[in-house]
Design goal:
The structure holds two protein chains of two kinds. By secondary structure, chain A is an all-alpha fold. Chain A has 16 helices and four strands. Chain A starts with 17 loop residues before the first helix and ends with a helix. In chain B, the strands form three sheets. In chain B, strands 6-9-10-3-11-12 form a six-stranded mixed beta sheet, sandwiched between helices. Chain B has a four-stranded antiparallel beta sheet with strand order 2-1-4-5, with helices on one face. A two-stranded antiparallel sheet of chain B has the order 7-8. The chains are: A mainly alpha, B alpha/beta. Chain B: It holds the Pfam family ABC_tran.
Chain lengths: 372, 264
């Protein structure tokens, strides 16, 4: 801010008010939304059990699920592409874990690593086709939405004659890698909190005296770690600048020496990575893989990202915003359940908030670029 | 203009011919540019200006003719080669991304990094301070380096692109019609920028079809017409009307020959 050499200052440029400057942050809408959502449920559903330890764990887990896929979708969207195959990828990855680890019976750590390699390779294939053909990623990944879902239903029927494969928890018993996805941490802290009477404990049965919530699921740790990683990558590294540039104007970015192809490929692969993390955490928790897992998750990820302030056209957005979008999503979905509201109304809410977010984002975009 | 006698030309284009199949786009064009001069390349649409500067910046390879850069014959295989040698082109449709901040745009593809705990981080402080000071040198006071490029006027965007090219070591700066889409005030800002850059010793090739813009900053003027050069004139040796006539087709060539010093 140097207004000292005052002569060339353009007198037609108005001072920008702090409010307007704050509005130009992509995550502002999501911040306001998050506060509003919490305020609403604290006012109207505080006694419903939503804010005791189980309640918090409940919506925090759901939010963390959304967060994991939203981080991938967010970076990919800022890089100018979509991935509609995220939901199918979740189902597919879970099924692969079950087939490798249960049906074939290789050690769970190897099943997990194999699944990662396979799914990231499919993500790379998505990216390769989009970049090579120049087709919209919308269409290419829509094709993979069906291809992957089809295989997810077909393979278990072919191999096991059923669409749900169980026994994953047993297969993961004693494995060194599986707890990183399915485990819980800080158990001791929760025991202490329970003993101190700060959180609820079981009052009868075999687990009497133990806290109802016995640790933080690794799912939540993954979500927070991915958000921090995505945010730092996007805002604090040169690669982050390339992500913005690739999505803002791929041609201009190429002219300036940005490796646009590499950036987009890596973002497709990262999105697949996030979907696989989601899937592995889920199958470890449920102990089974189902052919219908992850249905509609691609849209939920995109909605969280858009609520977080990213532009559908690319080049603009925030990982923190997407994470807050995921929190709004999770809190409202579970909050309505706690408040005893008919759950179908959640979809109405979703549609309304999506529309509102897109309109707000368009307005913010005009403010940034000065378009009319 | 004593730069001509005291310096060697930084780039010389000798009898450049470029054929596209049966079409002769350039039929032997010669031009030399000295450090610190603004050499205006004028011509009507279709005169071959674009082909000529694309040859200079490594996009096209000349069919015949020679490019001498810094005293040595040069063969640019790709635009990247020319860029690395120090020939930068600022296009009419700029390499600027409106949604990104000025400093992010300024360093796009050349981001400064700072190592913290073995990880390379984008050095925003450095990028911001360089952007602010480079823009101030060009006479533009940014409100803040994180201001989006989209909020800048067309002239200011041109200036950011020029400042960026100069900062990253351009010795020859090719400006492809930088003023054609601008208003009067913005045009004068860009012309002032060209003057600033020239005084830093950068050779500027300024492509335009506006004689008044050319005469405002140009040291020398080369007119292209139908793939041929109609000669290079020094500042002060030619009037706006004469330049205009040459661009229009050289009907007055006979009367011009004298004033052009036989270079036709």
């Amino acid at each position: 801010m140097s207004e000292t050499a005052s002569n060339p200052v353009d007198e037609r440029v108005k001072r920008i008010s702090p409010l307007r400057r704050a509005l130009i942050r992509p995550e502002l809408g999501a911040m306001v939304g998050t506060i509003a959502v919490f305020a609403f449920f604290i006012l109207f559903a505080f006694d419903s059990g939503m804010f005791n330890s189980q309640g918090v764990l409940n919506w925090a887990t759901v939010s963390a699920q959304f967060m994991i896929i939203a981080v991938g979708a967010c970076l990919l969207m800022i890089a100018g592409e979509f991935d509609l195959s995220v939901g199918s990828m979740i189902g597919f990855a879970g099924m692969m874990i079950a087939i490798f680890g249960v049906t074939i019976g290789i050690p769970m750590w190897a099943a997990i690593l194999l699944t990662f390699v396979l799914c990231i390779a499919i993500g790379a294939l998505n990216g390769f086709i989009v970049i090579r053909t120049g087709l919209p990623s919308f269409i290419v990944t829509l094709a993979f939405l069906f291809i992957l879902r089809g295989f997810t239903i077909f393979l278990p029927q072919l191999i096991e004659r059923k669409t749900i494969i169980g026994g994953i928890r047993e297969a993961a018993e004693g494995d060194w890698l599986a707890p990183i996805f399915g485990g819980k941490i800080l158990g001791g802290l929760f025991v202490w909190l329970g003993d101190a009477g700060l959180i609820a404990t079981f009052e009868r049965g075999t687990r009497e005296g133990q806290p109802v919530v016995d640790g933080i699921p690794m799912l939540i740790i993954w979500a927070l770690a991915l958000v921090v990683f995505g945010h730092v990558l996007l805002t604090r590294t040169r690669f982050g600048n390339w992500i913005f540039a690739a999505g803002g104007d791929a041609e201009a970015a190429r002219n300036s020496g940005v490796p646009v192809t590499r950036v987009k490929m890596l973002m497709f692969m990262f999105t697949a990575f996030c979907a696989t993390v989601f899937a592995i955490c889920q199958v470890m928790e449920f102990g089974s893989a189902g052919a219908d897992r992850g249905l509609l998750k691609e849209f939920e990820a995109i909605i969280a990202v858009v609520i977080g302030g990213a532009l559908l056209t690319g080049g603009y957005g925030s990982v923190i915003g997407a994470a807050l979008g995921a929190v709004i999503f999770g809190v409202v979905q579970q909050g309505l359940f706690f408040a005893g509201v008919e759950s179908s109304l959640f979809r109405v809410f979703l549609g309304v908030i999506l529309l509102g977010a897109v309109i707000l984002n368009t307005y913010i975009r005009r403010m940034i670029t000065g378009e009319r | 203009m004593n730069t001509r006698s005291s310096h060697a030309p930084i780039i010389q284009m000798r009898n450049i011919e470029k054929h596209f199949g049966p079409v002769i786009a350039l039929a032997g064009v010669s031009l030399d540019v000295y450090p610190g001069e603004c050499h205006c390349l004028l011509g009507d649409n279709g005169a071959g200006k674009s082909t000529f500067i694309k040859t200079m910046s490594g996009v096209h390879k000349p069919t015949r003719g020679e490019i001498v850069f810094n005293g040595a014959p040069m063969n640019f295989e790709t635009p990247r080669d020319a860029m690395e040698a120090g020939i930068a082109t600022v296009h009419q449709h700029l390499a600027m991304i409106p949604l990104m901040s000025v400093s992010r745009n300024f360093f796009m593809g050349n981001e400064p990094v700072k190592r913290i705990a073995g990880i390379n981080f984008f050095d925003h402080d450095h990028a911001n301070s360089v952007t602010m000071s480079e823009m101030r040198r060009m006479g533009i006071n940014l409100r803040a380096p994180d201001q989006a490029v989209g909020t800048l006027s067309g002239g200011e965007r041109q200036t950011v692109a020029i400042a960026r090219a100069v900062y990253f070591g351009a010795k020859v700066l090719i400006l492809d019609e930088p003023t054609s889409a601008l208003g009067v005030r913005q045009t004068s800002n860009v012309l002032a920028t060209i003057d600033t850059v020239r005084k830093q010793g950068v050779a500027v090739v300024f492509i335009t079809h506006n004689v008044r813009h050319a005469l405002a900053v140009g040291d020398r003027f080369t007119v292209l017409n139908r793939g041929q050069t109609l000669g290079t004139a020094q500042r002060g040796q030619i009037t706006p009307d004469e330049l205009q006539d040459m661009m229009a087709g050289g009907q007055e060539m006979a009367t011009l020959e004298g004033s052009l010093g036989g270079t036709v």
